[in-house]
Amino acid sequence: MDLFLQFLVNGLVTGSFYALSALGLTLIFGLMRVVNFAHGEFYMMGGILGWFVTSRLGLDFFSGLVVVAVLMATFGWLVDRFLIERVRDQGEEPGILLTIGLSIFLANSALLAVGTAPQKIEGPVGNELVVLGPVITTQLRLFSVAVCALLIIGVHLLVQKTKLGRAMRATFQDPMAAKLAGIKTERVYASTFALGVTLAAMSGMLLGSVYSAQVAIGGLISLKAFVVVILGGMGSFGGAILGGLILGIAESMWGGYVSTGLVDIIGFAIVIMTLLFRPYGLFSTRSERA
Predict the structure, then answer these.
(1) What is the C-alpha separation between 132 and 171, in angstroms, rounded?
(2) What per-residue confidence (pLDDT) applies to 278?
(3) Taking 70 as the threshold, does the pLDDT of residue 156 lie above it?
(4) 106 C-beta neighbours (distance < 10 Å), count
(5) pLDDT in the model for residue 38
């Protein structure tokens, strides 16, 4: 039982990062209907930028996180206005090809600029062990999970309680009616894409402080984010959170009891089972399925 609890806590920690990253993809993929294969590269850029502004520019972790958020939000806005907007009404295939090309460009640009060596981001708290009964974790992991939770709550409040959030929901439900109501839908799309990019980048910086920031991790993160979105249900905010936690726990249990070398198999097995028996996701509502 002690070992089970340890694996469970490890899975919840990893799942919180998956959930935060997948929220960004949920906004872009589930609501905007943009199949964003560059999502993992935005995550990677957040980690690399976080390492650069803290280790090279000397900023503290919180200031660095704010800088990364602002830079990546601006970058996401520009990507939507100058790239995504040009193919928005041309079907899914142009968007897929565009984001694949963007993914390759960003990954290779980062490779030329930084190299392949993992970069450690200095966290704001120590990495001392924390013993919670039979479970052992670290201060840094607990801090990172707390920040992920605060960001998730903040995004929920933004979408549900703010003028921008209402405009986002109106645009995604009926773009033409939103335009007739005076909503500038192109700005809403750009803001949503910028928010999704920012969430991925902040998740990358947080996880980079727990493990390390790596240039080559983008492809794997994209796959896991798509797994979470498919598992939770496209467009489902709560589904992305629960899907991320389920994936994190499943990987932890599989790695602990079966094999750490085959831990990525469990995510794809879950996706196959979900597509076979509940193709709209485990937590999608009737309106989201419609």
Answers:
(1) 46
(2) 83
(3) yes
(4) 20
(5) 94
Q: Is residue 45 a contact partner of residue 220, using CB atoms and an 8 Å limit?
A: no
Q: What is the pLDDT of residue 289?
A: 53
Please give the pLDDT value at position 1: 67
- The whole domain housing 62 covers 2-289
Which residues make Cβ contacts (< 8 Å) with residue 37, sequence separation at least 6? 96, 99, 100, 102, 103, 222
Q: Are strands 129-132 and 135-138 parallel, antiparallel or unpaired?
A: antiparallel
CATH number for the domain including 45?
Answer: 1.10.3470
Residue with tokens 């924390």: 130
Mapped to the 3 state alphabet, what secondary structure does the chain carry? CHHHHHHHHHHHHHHHHHHHHHHHHHHHHHHCCCCCCCHHHHHHHHHHHHHHHHHHCCCCHHHHHHHHHHHHHHHHHHHHHHCHHHHCCCCHHHHHHHHHHHHHHHHHHHHHHHCCCCECCCCCCCCCEEEECCEEEEHHHHHHHHHHHHHHHHHHHHHHHCHHHHHHHHHHHCHHHHHHCCCCHHHHHHHHHHHHHHHHHHHHHHHHHHCCECHHHHHHHHHHHHHHHHHHCCCCHHHHHHHHHHHHHHHHHHHHHCCHHHHHHHHHHHHHHHHHHCCCCCCCCHHHHC
In angstroms, the CA 52 to CA 16 distance is 24
Domain count, the chain: 1
Q: Which residues contact 6 (CB under 8 A, 6 or more apart)?
A: 134, 135, 136, 256
